[in-house]
Specification:
heterodimer, A: alpha/beta, B: 95 residues, mainly alpha, 6 helices, 78% helix
Chain lengths: 310, 95
């Protein structure tokens, strides 16, 4: 299973290009899933079908799905806050339990939900040869992609402290040989639920991080030959570098021959340091003969061979 | 005979008590450290209460149900926070 993320400023054509890429791969006989993570969904409009977070089969090889991030974050929080409701169930008597509803407005929840959805899609990914992600505009996408490594850092720190706690508990127990409260505390890593959970989360986020950074994932940046999209793409490319996420493809979308001077400048500005990135210009007028086919076939062939850096 | 036995028993008890006292004393500092670490652990997880950066909410939400003891320690530390230096000084034997 291979994955492909289309990122970029709002309105540059991420949805169009990801749809075309997915469609063209499916037409070649591969099983493809196109997922839209953008809260302002266009995927259904492009294919003229009604979609939700379940995978809907569009043709024999092509499935589509639109992830509703606010719904996904509510669902996830509901599962996670069940434990609060169990512990504080008595608050129902005073009708105070409804205050837990405020939890669904926790900051950062949507990014978390998006990541969990990506994880879920990856884990069911064996059904597909390719998964194409249409992402939300730059800011949100970067936060989603940064989340695994930030969380891993936190978890590693927490695991370190927890290990020290368990070591100290062990020392106290060995020296005192007694039965006081401190000495009865769990000191073995396999008995301590907290460290077990920490390890489990660490493993999960590590997997996600390696999936995102790995060779089977391609991150592409879509931009237009204009100043604003150039500036935003520059920040995006820099941030991807900082996150250690390899950029392999760029699309200079909505290109027109009258803009070729600007397009040259922008490509030079953005990609002069990037020797291993392949850039593809996509015409403004599309493919009139064959509307679904706007990505040149040789790019797709290169991508299929796995050497997008040729 | 029974007197000797009594003396012997008292002696054993006495020596055992000394041993026990030393054992308690020996890990006093470790126990203090343990409490502080547990305190710190929860403080990091619930940093948003104190205004320090915290990990993603999901990490905290997942761990909190298993941290009853640590939260108790945190509360206790918060109560006698002003006395923390005194306690530390007492534990490591500074007058």
């Amino acid at each position: 299973m291979k994955s492909l993320f289309f990122t970029g400023k709002g309105g540059v054509g991420k949805s169009t290009l990801s749809s075309a890429f997915g469609y063209q791969l499916a037409e070649k006989g591969y099983k493809v899933l196109i997922v839209s993570l953008d809260p302002a969904h266009n995927l259904g409009d492009i294919f003229s079908v009604k979609l939700d977070s379940k995978e809907t089969s569009f043709s024999k090889n092509l499935s589509l799905s639109e992830v509703d991030l606010s719904k996904a974050s509510k669902k996830y929080l509901k599962e996670n806050t069940k434990v609060f409701e169990e512990v504080y169930g008595y608050l129902k008597v005073l009708n105070l339990d409804r205050y837990f509803n405020i939890l669904k407005y926790t900051p950062g929840m949507e990014e978390n939900a998006a990541l969990i959805e990506i994880d879920r899609i990856f884990s069911t990914g064996d059904k597909f040869d390719f998964i194409v992600f249409d992402t939300p505009p730059t800011g949100i996408t970067l936060r989603i992609l940064a989340l695994p490594s930030i969380t891993i850092n936190w978890l590693e720190q927490l695991i370190g402290i927890r290990k020290q706690i368990l070591e100290k508990r062990y020392t106290i127990r060995k020296v005192r040989e007694g039965n006081t409260e401190t000495e009865k505390l769990k000191y073995d890593e396999s008995d301590d639920k907290v460290i077990v959970k920490l390890y489990r989360m660490h493993e999960k986020y590590r997997n996600l991080e390696s999936l995102i950074r790995g060779n089977n994932n391609t991150v592409s940046v879509v931009f237009n030959p204009d100043f604003l999209s150039m500036k935003e793409s520059e920040r995006l490319i820099k941030s991807l570098d900082e996150l250690g996420i390899p950029l392999r493809l760029t699309f200079n979308n909505k290109f027109d021959s009258c803009l070729s001077e600007d397009a040259d400048k922008i490509e030079k500005y953005l990609l002069s340091q990037k020797n291993d990135v392949i850039n593809q210009r996509i015409g403004f007028s599309g493919n009139k003969k064959n509307p679904g086919y706007i990505i040149p076939d040789d790019l797709i062939q290169n991508y299929l061979k796995g050497n997008t850096d040729v | 005979m029974s007197l000797i036995k009594k003396i012997y028993r008292s002696l054993v008890f006495f020596i055992k008590s000394i041993d026990q006292a030393h054992r308690i004393k020996a890990v006093e500092v470790t126990e203090y450290e343990l409490r502080e670490l547990e305190n710190l652990f929860v403080l990091l997880l619930m940093g948003s209460f104190t205004g320090i950066p915290s990990p993603s909410t999901l990490v905290s939400a997942e761990l909190i149900p298993d941290l009853t003891r640590e939260i108790e320690v945190l509360n206790k530390r918060a109560e006698d926070a002003f006395d923390a230096f005194n306690e530390l000084a007492g534990t490591i034997g500074i007058d």
